Amino acid sequence: MSDAFQVLKIDHEAITTVLRRLSAGPGGARQRLAERLIIEVTKHETVEEEFFWPAVREHVSGGGAPADEATAQEQHVKSALQELDGLSAGDPRFEEPLSGLIGEIRAHLTFEETRVWPPLRRALTGTQAAELGTALMKGKSLAPTHPDPGIAPEPGILKASGAMTAAADRLKDAATGRGRD
Ligand SMILES: [Fe+2]
Ligand SMILES: [Fe+2]
Q1: Average pLDDT, whole number, for the chain?
Q2: Closest listed residue to residue 66, CA positions, set 5, 123, 114
């Protein structure tokens, strides 16, 4: 069974791979890559908001400050992703926000891995880390795939409107082939 840090690491690696391919420059399947980025980041940040940041706030002494900082970064990333969502790769509005976003997301992942994971790892028991990992994995299967920065980054989203939004997103994605390689 995967613990929270393994689950998060797999997500971060998947996101980093898409960022690397996107930063290789124009051409290729850029629009598909941008769609993949939007889907992966939206699901990942949704489950962090639902389960990860509450765990940081609860278990890490002084964890509120890095949690606030990181969720502010996430809200900013979601706004930028929302602007990108649905744009074609040929659109003049596509490349510029994308290049800023690549650096912003990389910095966010590094912030979590270096500033947040180490103290949480020390604070959680093995059982707690495993339970958090299970919650994150289950949550991902329910998470929306379109960013909505208008929703406050607080727990409860996934259980309430998030699950409905996710179902609608997934139906739409299936109909359009969005996110398929
Ligand atoms: Fe995050
Ligand atoms: Fe993360």
Answers
A1: 88
A2: 114
| Residue list, CB under 5 A from ion ligand 2 | 112
82's tokens: 């929302």
Closest Cα partner for 99 from 38, 173, 22, 16? 22
Tell me the residue length of the chain.
Answer: 181
Distance of CA 165 from the midpoint of ligand 2 (Å): 21
The predicted-structure confidence for 52-89, as pLDDT tens digits, reads as follows 999 999 999 999 999 999 999 999 999 999 999 888 88
Amino acid occupying residue 53? W
Q: What pTM value is reported for the model?
A: 0.87
Task: Say which ligand is closest to the CA of 46.
Answer: 1
| Confidence at residue 27, expressed as pLDDT on a 0 to 100 scale | 65
- Both tokens of 178, joined, read 């969005």
Centre of ligand 1 from the C-alpha of residue 125, in Å? 22
Instruction: Record the tokens describing residue 30, joined without a space.
Output: 């850029």
Ligand 2 centroid to Cα of residue 96, in Å, is 23
Neighbours of 165 (CB within 10 A): 20
Rg of the chain (C-alpha set)? 16
